[in-house]
Specification:
single chain, mainly alpha, 2 domains, 6 helices, about 65% helix
Length: about 120
């Protein structure tokens, strides 16, 4: 659904998907219908953001770095020391994301938010 041009196309695909699978997986289809509205937010973002938002690369890289740094220590003396390290690493990563190369062009989002209407139901 996230390769579609807009939310209306995605809704059409969802309707076809629900029709296909509702007989075999009724609980999944019911759950999907109840919770899908949250994912339509994706279509409110500028089109150039879509390829980045579909990917979990940033999250995977963060998890990889946390694992690498905590693995060096092996055994933490207590839970608080582990949380301090992870908090410091998360803060460091946040600083890098703010000051480093821009992953998403937020100017495009600011411009779009000036003109975009709410997502149609």
């Amino acid at each position: 659904m996230y390769d579609r041009c807009d939310v209306n196309e995605a809704r059409q695909d969802l309707a076809a998907w629900l029709k296909r699978w509702s007989g075999k997986y009724p609980k999944l289809c019911t759950w999907t219908e109840e919770n899908i509205e949250q994912t339509w937010t994706f279509y409110r973002l500028p089109r150039q953001h879509h390829k980045h938002m579909k990917s979990t690369n940033m999250l995977e890289r963060l998890n990889q770095e946390l694992k690498r740094r905590t693995h060096v220590i092996r055994i933490f003396p207590n839970e608080a020391s582990c949380l301090r390290l992870i908090g410091a690493l998360a803060s460091e990563t946040d600083d890098e994301w703010l000051d480093g190369a821009c992953y998403l062009n937020m100017e495009a989002l600011r411009e779009q938010s000036k003109t975009q209407l709410p997502l149609a139901a």
